[in-house]
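anyone else get weird line breaks when pasting these?? whatever heres mine. first is seq + tokens for prot A
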Amino acid sequence: MSEHQTLLQDIQQAIRNVPDFPKPGIQFKDITPVLADARLFAGCVDLITHGIKPGDVDFVVGIDARGFIFAAAVALKLKAGFVPVRKKGKLPYSTHEESYDLEYGSNTVAIHTDAVHQGSRVLLVDDLLATGGTAAAAVQLVGRLGADIVGVSFVIELAFLKGRAKLPGLPISALVTY
């Protein structure tokens, strides 16, 4: 088994399944054991940035809240700016907002109106792709600002929820798929 495959297997084994959180019937994928292991956390960042070099992207957009952890580290590695997409009411400046449905409710996310620029190259990063609503809302927000999404990366994908269908035409990668 290659070092790459071993790392992916170790990441998958470290992800903890928490039944009935935050609601009954939800199988929550807990990434905190991955974050607590420096090798696995660094490995996630290395795998997300594989094939991307500094200068390929202008901004890394991270989605509230666990996506911030990976996106900020990815932005540092790529020498790119970090931009948060936050839940409604959490950003202090003028924002654009987008509402969406998720696997257990609905929500609204926002981005500062000056967060990225026309023609900026953006890598969108989040910890989990489930139904795709959150990521699709973030894509809409970035697009509204005139930036180009050059990739969408997740640590985990719940493929059975078909979230990729809400992100047509975008290059999507996930480290671990369930």
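and prot B, same format (seq, then tokens)
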Amino acid sequence: MPAMPWWLLALPFAAGACLSLQAGINGQLARHLSSVMAASLISFAVGTLLLFAVTAAQRELPAVGAFRGLHWWHWIGGFLGAFFIFTATLAGPRIGALLFMALVLAGQLSAATVLDHFGWAGFRQSPISLGKVAGLLLIFGGVWMIRRG
């Protein structure tokens, strides 16, 4: 396997670090607006505007015809993102950044294990192994330890 550029490893690490901050900021916004849904909408709208501006600046906006042939499941990525933003805004401030992110990580890695095992959603197929199950159990043990506090 060829060596990966350092930034390809640093970028997901930085994105993960930003999730905790995002949950806290959105929680504060929700408190200020007295609405988790409004705060989630503002967060998603700001992100959408930024992505639109960058995509337009790079002249990568797809033609209308590019949308033909998309399947229903191509559209649920936005729903999943909105679900995460809503959940982070609602739960993050209430349970704390560490427990929230530990649970997010446990959920991500559990789903990733299944996705890799079956090769779903375009991921390279990689069967579940005893080592992967042991790693997941350690993650869940960490969630339990963090919860106990």
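btw re prot B: Residues 96-149 form one domain. Residues 6-33 form the longest helix (28 residues).
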